[in-house]
Design a protein that fits this description.
The protein is α+β, with helices and mostly antiparallel strands and 116 residues long. Helix content is 45%, strand content 28%. The chain has a single domain, classed as Alpha-Beta Plaits. Strand 2 and strand 3 form a beta hairpin.
Length: 116
């Protein structure tokens, strides 16, 4: 499984609104793309948006690119307006075995604080 995170910071609030609307249009068009598991958007005021998507594999990402032709055009527009763009792809390997350590630590801290 792959996780794609993209952060975009723009100079004008109206540009941010346009990017958010484009996201929802593309999400609607991509509902039937096999391998696109989840998409989310986070808005950080005043002018930043973060997109998170989960993909079955790289092939699913390629299918999205052909199924939603608006995407490359929107990306080009974002770069042309001089937006600050950061992006990363992460391979999710499965559940982290150290999560159990965090849960146990959290329970110990709660017990020390007198929480039940």
């Amino acid at each position: 499984m792959l996780c794609l995170v993209t952060r975009i910071k723009v100079k004008k609030i109206f540009t941010l609104i346009g990017i958010i609307f484009a996201f929802f249009r593309m999400r609607r068009r991509s509902r039937n793309v096999p391998g696109l598991l989840e998409t989310s958007v986070l808005v950080r005021w005043p002018r930043t948006v973060i997109f998170i998507s989960l993909w079955k594999d790289a092939s699913a990402m390629a299918r999205f690119a052909t199924a939603v032709p608006e995407h490359p055009m929107t990306v080009l527009k974002v770069y042309r307006i001089g937006a600050e763009v950061w992006s990363g792809v992460f391979k999710l390997q499965g559940q982290n075995p150290e999560v159990e350590i965090w849960i146990n630590s959290s329970e110990k801290v709660s017990a020390l604080a007198g929480e039940k």
